[in-house]
Amino acid sequence: MFKIEDSVAAKEVEENVRTFITHNKGGRWELIRAPTETTTGTKIECYLEDGCSIHLEIYSHQGKLAPVYSTEKAIGIVLGTGNIGKKLTPNES
User: Fold this and answer.
1) Across the strands, what pairs with 21?
2) Which of 12, 41, 73, 92 has a CA that sits 20 to 30 A from residue 25's CA?
């Protein structure tokens, strides 16, 4: 039975968004490993073991979080924007 004290406030959820990926239709979900260095060669200290990973910022045209969809036949390159850390942080630009 659902109890009100078991629920989580929407604001708390929005402030703790993390990005996961699956390679087997949802059987197992994993955080996305960050690269070890930037394109200019600067080392990145971000390890999955410490809860640090890549988080993607994906919003709908209405400014709300939107799900990511894919298909088995999808091919090509995926580009995204986001941040490296323990959770998705606001993009101030």
Assistant:
1) 30
2) 12
CA–CA separation, 88 vs 19, rounded Å? Answer: 8
Report d(CA 69, CA 75) in Å as an integer: 13
Give the pLDDT confidence score for residue 70 in this predicted structure.
Answer: 67
Write down the mean pLDDT value for the chain. 80
DSSP letters, 19-70, are -EEESSTTSSEEEBPPPSB-TT--B----GGGT-EEEE--B-TTSSB-----
Is residue 46 over pLDDT 80? Answer: yes
Task: Give the pLDDT confidence score for residue 6 in this predicted structure.
Answer: 67
pLDDT: which is higher, 25 or 78: 25
- The 3-state DSSP class for residue 75 equals coil
- Tokens representing 93 are 């630009």
